């Protein structure tokens, strides 16, 4: 059965909402799980930071000559830049700005008393989710927190190559997401502590709504197991009319609006990993990641990580397969504009930490923008 709804409300400040800033607040209810609710003070700051366009313009003037440290990691700025110089490359300004903004944002938000400070301050469920998503490579001494729909299959394939379980990244085999991979959850507490302290730690993130749409199109448009496990129940619960009540429901025609309604009734800490927020999967306040890469600049960022961990020069990150059809900005805008706006307003608070911590601007679905 699907879990009960976790209520959120989002109101415009001083009446009708403005075009660029929204004010979110959590609605207290007896059915709300307080452990997963986001504090209003955190949300207020998150929305300000998530208005990334203006912030980026301001920072660009301030940071042109600033060296960039890795986000909250133990490495020093000089160490980071030394690795870049060894590659014979000049880090472009936008790359430096993005890393610095993420660094500052994570430090500010994670410094609040309400946020977890280490893995052991997480709830048992939060810690279990995190440890099950952190992959370990002892040979090259790194930890990778995988986020589904952010090229994690290619990263897992690459980890198998580094461990010797796979000959090369281009081997044509069906990806097994568990065999020949070492997860942090399989280690003892003292082994976990050592690796968290001494290993290079990274993750990759993606624009939250784009990642969500990618999961929807893949799981409900292509994967029969998800259609049966989730789609049938979603149709029966959220679709009106007799067609949704009979035994002939297959779950292969779930609409995006129905999927969003289902997400609104989901506790973020118990979501399927393919649409659970990256924050809940990887807990960037509890783990001091040394590098946070972007799906939008995947090849460049992956190259930096491979050289940083000392991977052999002949090992490269897999290129995108020609049959793969990524979610375009136009497709995303179409789906978001097609949603009833109340659904989008109710949905965004669940992913607000992903928007803010990883510096993605909130989607613009005002009437003029949608008409365009």
User: Shape, please?
Assistant: globular
Helical amount among residues, as a percent range?
Answer: 40-55%
Q: Biggest β-sheet, characterized?
A: 5 strands, mixed
State the oligomer.
single chain
Which structural class do the helices and strands define? alpha/beta
Give a written overview of the molecule.
The protein is 44% helix and 8% strand. It has 16 helices and 7 strands. Strand 3 and strand 4 form a beta hairpin.
Summarize the model shown.
The chain has 372 residues and is an alpha/beta fold. It is built from 16 helices and 7 strands.
Architecture blueprint of SSEs:
Blueprint: E1 8-11, E2 23-26, H1 40-50, H2 52-63, H3 77-86, H4 93-110, H5 124-131, E3 134-137, E4 142-145, H6 152-163, E5 182-183, H7 189-198, E6 200-205, H8 208-222, H9 224-238, H10 256-264, H11 278-282, E7 291-294, H12 298-308, H13 329-338, H14 341-347, H15 352-357, H16 367-371
Parallel strand pairs: 4-6, 6-7
Antiparallel strand pairs: 1-2, 3-4, 3-5
Output the keywords.
372 residues; 5-stranded mixed beta sheet; 7 strands; two-stranded antiparallel ribbon; disordered N terminus; globular; alpha/beta
């Amino acid at each position: 059965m699907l879990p009960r709804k976790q209520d959120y409300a989002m109101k415009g400040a001083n009446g009708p909402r403005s075009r660029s800033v929204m004010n979110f607040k959590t609605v207290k209810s007896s059915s709300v799980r307080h452990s997963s609710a986001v504090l209003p003070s955190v949300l207020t700051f998150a929305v300000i930071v998530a208005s990334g366009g203006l912030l980026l313009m301001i920072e660009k003037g301030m940071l042109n000559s600033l060296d960039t440290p890795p986000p909250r990691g133990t490495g020093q700025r000089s160490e980071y830049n030394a690795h870049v110089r060894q590659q014979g490359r000049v880090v472009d300004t936008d790359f430096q700005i993005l890393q610095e903004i993420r660094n500052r944002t994570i430090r500010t938000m994670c410094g609040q008393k309400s946020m977890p400070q280490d893995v052991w301050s997480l709830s048992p469920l939060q810690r279990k989710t995190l440890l099950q998503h952190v992959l370990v490579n002892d040979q090259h001494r790194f930890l990778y927190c995988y986020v589904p729909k952010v090229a994690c299959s290619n990263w897992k394939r690459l980890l198998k190559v580094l461990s010797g379980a796979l000959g090369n990244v281009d081997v044509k085999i069906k990806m097994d997401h568990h065999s020949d991979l070492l997860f942090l959850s399989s280690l003892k507490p003292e082994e976990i502590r050592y690796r968290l302290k001494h290993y290079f730690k990274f993750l990759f993130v993606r624009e939250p709504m784009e990642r969500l749409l990618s999961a929807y199109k893949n799981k409900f448009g292509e994967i029969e197991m998800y259609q049966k496990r989730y789609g049938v129940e979603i149709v029966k619960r959220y679709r009106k009319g007799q067609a949704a009540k009979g035994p002939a429901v297959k779950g292969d025609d779930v609409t995006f609006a129905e999927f969003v309604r289902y997400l609104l009734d989901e506790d973020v800490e118990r979501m399927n990993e393919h649409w659970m927020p990256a924050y809940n999967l990887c807990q960037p306040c509890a783990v001091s990641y040394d590098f946070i890469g972007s799906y939008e600049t995947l090849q460049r960022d992956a190259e930096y990580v491979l050289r940083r961990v000392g991977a052999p020069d002949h090992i490269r990150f897999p290129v995108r397969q020609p049959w793969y059809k990524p979610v375009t900005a136009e497709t995303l805008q179409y789906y978001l504009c097609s949603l009833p706006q109340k659904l989008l307003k109710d949905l965004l608070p669940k992913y607000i930490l992903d928007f803010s911590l990883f510096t993605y601007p909130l989607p613009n679905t005002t009437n003029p923008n949608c008409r365009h």
